[in-house]
Amino acid sequence: MVVYLLPQLPRLTAVFCSLHYFILYLCYFRRGQYSKAKQDLEEEKHLNPGVRIYVDPFTYEDPDQAVHEFAKEIDASNIHIEKVIGIGEFGEVCSGRLRLQGKREIYVAIKSLKAGYADKQRRDFLSEASIMGQFDHPNIIRLEGVVTRCKPVMIITEYMENGSLNTFLRKHDGQFTVIQLVGMLRGIVSGMKYLSDMSYVHRDLAARNILVNSNLVCKVSDFGLSRVLEDESEAAYTTQEVTGTYHSPGGKIPIRWTAPEAIAYRKFTPASDTWSYGVVMWEVMSYGERPYWDMSNQDVIKAIDEGYRLPPPMDCPVCLHQLMLDCWQRDRIHRPSFTQILNILDKLIRNPTTTLRRTGGERPVPTLLEPVGGPEFVSVWSVEYWLQAIGMDMYRDTLTAAGYTSPDSLLTLTQQDMASIGIVTPSHQDQILASVQQVLLSHMQQIQEQMQDSMVPV
To answer: pTM above 0.90?
Structure first.
């Protein structure tokens, strides 16, 4: 045996040396606590220094390192708690003041982790700070810092004087102009565009999770359900209704605000956030009414699956309700992006007298939903808005110059017509034709219904 082993000693020595260096490398790697996501972030920063990429704090083995990577540690002695303003999932939420050396004293909101917490609760609590600390936008709630080196553990954010948007609107029912309401919606979509640009999906966008300051600036908050955008398989999950939300293996799902594909397959994307934004639009224009009123979650899912959507709130401009319907397209690829929504709202704000035509009548009767495609094309659309809604507004001047200046004229548009006036990209032709055909189908259905109603039995 020794005879056969001796010649192998140099090779075994090399193997042991390699193994030794590999173990040292692993120890160094683990000591650094960097995950693959963290390495990818550093590589992305090097290759694209102007691009900010969101990092999921759950990829860190040590939650304290994650929170200190993105949040500033604050000495608890600099915080003065004044009063309790709410109760959160992890403990009390208080208002107070923060004074840092060399800076003026500011009002803040203070979330505290209740006593007796488990390690997982502490990690989940601090993960929200790790998420917020990565964002810097005027329509995203600002993180001031954290307290982790003493108890209670705290998260400190800017103070929003008017609280949650849904409660604020209910208190001031009917007191704002349409332009003021659209301004609130513009702020929300600006924040959501920022998050989407960072490949970040909120998952729980709702008026209750929008905070309002004294200047009526709306800011996206509550990142408890938020996760990094991942390419997950569309495996089906069973869900069970519990007190207004659905529980699934991935956590709670707020049914009334969630896109159908996210409910059925837990497929959360920027497009599912767009669906939620459409519901937020409805909440804002209805001054904080509960979406789908007193319908059960099961009835909401069934109604949406059958093609029904929320009707326009009282005095809601037609174009805004149409934008809501666009956000609620069943096929997520047909929903507008946050960039497109932002551009549309900006144009509405610049031209309020010509575009913000209101619907008449009283508020809708509870549970009275509308089937998709209810309003007629001519009464709802302008050519400009239609092109914006389908993401083809780069062809506005082309179509106008060719004489397509009214919604009716667009109904005759063919692929040959588009090619002859310079719209030659096949995917663009397909998208425009699909929209025109959808409108024609809606008209045919309406004509058939009118004919059936007018028929007299023999």
So the answer is: no
User: Within this chain, do residues 270 and 300 fall inside the same structural domain, yes or no?
Assistant: yes
The one-character DSSP state at 233 is -
Return mean pLDDT, the chain.
79
Number of domains in the chain: 3
Residue 93 and residue 205 in one domain:
no
d(CA 196, CA 271) in angstroms, rounded, equals 10
Report how far residue 164's alpha carbon sits from residue 181's, in angstroms, rounded to the nearest whole number. Answer: 15
The CATH number for 438's domain is 1.10.150.50
d(CA 187, CA 277): 12
One domain, residues 62 and 206: no
User: pLDDT tier at 293 (50, 70, 90 boundaries)?
Assistant: very high
Q: Which of 204, 222, 326, 393 is catalytic?
A: 204
Same domain, 328 and 394: no
The rounded distance, in Å, linking the Cα atoms of 76 and 312 is 48
- Alpha helices per DSSP H over 33-152: 36-47, 63-70, 119-132
If pLDDT is split at 50, 70 and 90, which confidence band does 247 have? very low
Distance CA 169, CA 284 (A): 7
Q: Which domain holds residue 210?
A: 163-226+253-350
Strand pairing report for 308-309 and 370-371:
antiparallel
Residues making up the chain, counted from first to last = 458
Question: What is d(CA 374, CA 442) in angstroms, rounded to the nearest whole number?
Answer: 8
Q: Would residue 204 show up in a list of annotated catalytic residues for this protein?
A: yes
Whether 111 has a binding-site annotation, put simply, is yes
Give the contacts of 297 (CB within 8 A, at least 6 positions apart): 241, 244, 245, 246, 255, 256
In terms of domains, do 268 and 333 share one?
Answer: yes
Tell how far CA 224 is from the center of its chain. Answer: 13
